[in-house]
Structures are given as structure tokens and as C-alpha cells.
């Protein structure tokens, strides 16, 4: 592993520590034992891949061991591009070892690892078919900064029966090294953006947008397992709105994406213009991504191919409920623009 912490915790007869190479097979067995063949991402079924990702720092795994040294719990940070933030994910505990606070203590150790790595913060994507994972994010000190509608399939992780619509997620973020101040280009979502940042107590200075110039740069990803595309604008240029439009068309019509995420860099003056153009194409506000962009925060937008009913979502936080209402109102607004 890449300079793992030697720190260990003992909780109710269990040992919690960073993953060692010899634990990888136990993690794969844990995933199969709890989820059968339905878990996503598939990497956790492959012990060698688990080791490779941890050695590269793209996965930072913490495990819980029982008194016999068997892996009975796993929690990880995902950093596929070694960015300044990590997703807290892959939290799994064998049913017979639950209710021993293993999840909470694994998260404590993960947080220490994230601080040691100098990460800006942690992002989580709790589901909306129950409240448990949202309550956990609140317990850990994270705040809701967005809602991702229809991002996952109707069935995953050995669910007893498919959902009536694609799964939606709440986006939570916890700062580990918060900035003293944030400089953003102003968009017409400034009021909701200000409410999001009030949760973190970070002042935001707005500057007016300006026409984009030069050649832009975007990165496009498609995950066929969940039928989701991601468009990340790295640099806003005069050609960016057209490039986003082409990418959206290729992902939806060409590759069969059911949902798209669009990330726009709020530190760049042309973002407001690209946002308006994307909304004319049917994309709608989804939230803010603190430190999602290489030069700061990102404005998050979405595009949905399938319709859904937001009243079916279970939401815990009062502010997250306000966010959902705003996201849905924006979805209806941009639908009116296209008609």
C-alpha cells in the first residue's frame, strides 16, 4: 500500500485498520457474501485489482477484522483521478457483525487518512430509497450540496425487487481543509448557491461572467453498467457550448445513457454563458460540487432521458428537501424552454 497509517482501532472485539495485501481476498469474499454477484463497482470482486488500486492511491481501503482475523467490514475512499476530493463509498459490513459501530469507526479512520493525504474534502452519494445512509452523512458532519436524479438503475446490489424508477441520490460534502473564501462567477443560481455555502460558513465573492474565448477542453466518460454519462468541462472556451451539446447527443442517442451529469468550473468567467446554453438543451441545475474542478468548485447540471416522480424520494434533511424542490422546479423550467 502507499504509506498506510499504522493506526489501528479496537471496537467491540474487532480490529479496524488500513487494508493490507493479505486482506484483499477477504474483501472480495465479503462483497460476494453480502451482495452475491450484484455489487457495483466490479473491482471489489478482484483481490489483485483491490491491491493495485490501493497501491496507486485510487482506492484507500479500511477493513474491520473479527477476533479470528477475518474481514467482516470494508469502507473506502475512491479517487480514480487522484483528485483533491474523494468519495466515501463501498461501506459493507457482514449482517452478523452489524450494530457494533464498525461503520462509524471505519469512517473515523478513513477521515484521518484523507486528512493525512491533504484532501480538501469528502463527497458521499447516499441513496433515496431509505434514510439510513443520509442520516449517516449528517452524523459525520457532511452537508447536502446537491441532488442527482435518476443516476442509478432501478435494480442493483441484490435489491429484492426493482424500484419504480431509476434511483436518485443526495450529494453530501464535508470539508477537511476549507478555503477561507471562494471566488465564483455569478450565475442565475446564485441564491441557491449562497444557501448551500451558508452551511459551511465560507464567504463567497461573486464576479460577473464574461464571454468565453479561445478553445475549450472537456472530458467525457460513460459507465455502461449504470447507463450514466459524465461531461466535465476542464476549460471554458468559445466552442464549449457546442462541444457539450455534441457530447450529450452522443452519450444519449449514440451510447444509450439514461442520465447525464455536467460539471462546469465556477472559477471561469464563461461558465454562466455555457450554463444558459446547456439549459436551453434540457440540462438543469443539480447542485454544487466543492473542489470538483481542478481550479475550484463546479456547478452541477443534469440531463434525464427517463422521467421520474420526485415525490417518491425519501429525503432526511430539511435543506436537502429544499434542494430537491429547487432542482425539480429547474427541471420543469428547462423543460418549458425546450417545448
* SS element count, helices: 8
Low-confidence stretches: none
Tell the overall outline.
globular
Class by SSE composition:
alpha+beta
The main β sheet shows up as: 8 strands, mixed
For the largest beta sheet, what order do the strands appear in spatially? 1-2-3-4-5-6-8-7
Count the E strands: 15
Order of helices and strands: EEHHEEEHEHEEEHEEEHEHEEH
Helix fraction by DSSP (H/I, runs of at least 4)? 25-40%
Q: Using the CA coordinates, give the radius of gyration.
A: 20 Å
Strand portion? 25-35%
Provide an overview of this structure.
It is a single chain. With 339 residues, the protein is α+β, with helices and mostly antiparallel strands. 29% of the residues lie in helices and 31% in strands. The chain has 8 helices and 15 strands. An 8-stranded mixed beta sheet has the order 1-2-3-4-5-6-8-7, sandwiched between helices. β11 and β12 form a beta hairpin. The longest helix is centred in the last third of the chain and has 21 residues. The radius of gyration is 20 Å and the shape is globular. The mean pLDDT is 93.
SSE diagram, text form:
Blueprint: E1 9-11, E2 14-18, H1 24-35, H2 47-56, E3 59-65, E4 71-78, E5 85-93, H3 102-116, E6 121-124, H4 132-139, E7 143-152, E8 167-175, E9 182-185, H5 190-198, E10 204-207, E11 217-223, E12 228-235, H6 240-254, E13 259-265, H7 271-280, E14 284-293, E15 296-304, H8 318-338
Parallel strand pairs: 5-6, 9-10, 12-13
Antiparallel strand pairs: 1-2, 2-3, 3-4, 4-5, 6-8, 7-8, 11-12, 13-15, 14-15
